[in-house]
Amino acid sequence: MVREKNPNVLSVHSIIHRQALTAKTLPTKLTTQVFNLLAYLLDICYSLNLLNLNLQDGGSNTIYHRDAITTYTYKFQLWNRKIIACNYSCFPKLFGMLEEALIKQTDTTNKISNQLQHLTDEIKRYFPSLCYNDSYRLAMDPFTLTQMFYRKHCKTIAVIKTKYRSKFNIASGLRSALSSTQPRIENLCKNVQAHPSH
Fold first, then answer.
1. Residue range 10-48, pLDDT digits in tens
2. Where along the chain do its domains lie?
3. pLDDT tens column, 145-189
4. 3-state SS class at 87
5. What is the rounded CA–CA span in Å between residue 21 and residue 14?
6. Cβ-contact 98, 88 below 8 angstroms
7. 146-178: buried (b, 16+ CB within 10 Å) or exposed (e) per residue?
8. CA-to-CA distance for 13 and 11, rounded, in angstroms?
């Protein structure tokens, strides 16, 4: 009807419709992989956001932070094992998409597994040996470390207790006996004047 009145009029599809027609030319496998990876990214970013919020909690301390980071390291390792076994239940959005598709996504599985391994490696790089120093272990469980120390130095403590049985305080003898620093007796003797006899 418009062309009858004006033959120079051009008709075109709407831009949105043309974009939809263009998108249909993408391979279905590629489109599915992109959506699966987007679903995974939503899940992993949600999880990392929860970790971030926990670390920002005003009542937390270094011990709590270390435990939270260590827990996430173990989570990433567990999730990686599950993904390799094609168990996507730890990622609800991805799980829902794959459940609807009813297909096994080997390429997606490999990409996610590699990314989880990378996250684990990065945590280990930025937080080396989280639980291996004595001060952290002492703060977490002071009784276990004290017992280990006592067993290690039990004989020394027994000798000092016998030697100073009549005295209540054995701290000075215990400190010198258990110290890892060796005394320099020669230097001490040089600095002390001899007492001449009267």
1. 666 566 666 667 767 767 777 778 888 889 999 999 998
2. 2-133, 153-191
3. 566 666 666 666 666 666 555 555 656 666 666 667 777 778 777
4. coil
5. 11
6. yes
7. eeeeeeeeeeebeebeeeeeeeeeeeebbeeee
8. 7
